[in-house]
Amino acid sequence: MMNCQSPRKPYRASQMSTIFITLLCCPSFLGAAVCVSYTMWSIRPSESCGPFRSLSTMFQSGKLWVKELETHNPNLAWLAYAHSYIVENPLFLFLGAGIFLIVIYFNTQVVDGQRKIISLLQEQIENSVC
Length: 130
Description:
This protein is mainly alpha-helical. The chain has helices spanning 12-42, 60-72, 77-87, 90-129. This is Transmembrane channel-like protein.
C-alpha cells in the first residue's frame, strides 16, 4: 500500500524536480565556465587574424576596455576599481565557488533526510496495515 495523496499546495509537486534539475545543470554550467575561463586566461590568440591579435591573452581585452571606459568617462572610475578587485582577484572566485558548494552540500543533506523520513513513513504504513 502506498500513500498517493496529492500535496496541499500546487507548487510542492514540482519543487523537488526543480531542485534536481538545478543541481544537475549548475555543475555543468560551472564546468563550461571553467573551460572558457581557462581559454581566456591562458591560451594565446592568433597573431594573424581576429579581434585579439595584438593581445597576449583574450582576458586583456577586458582590462583594456575598463581602462578606456575610465579615461573617456571619469564618473565610471568605480567600475574600473570594481573590475580590478572583483574580476581579477581569485579570492572572490574561490569564495563564490565555496558558497556554491556549501549550498549544494546542504541541499543534498536535506534530500537525504527527506528520503530517510519517507522510508520511515513507509515502514510505519506497512506496520499499521499488518
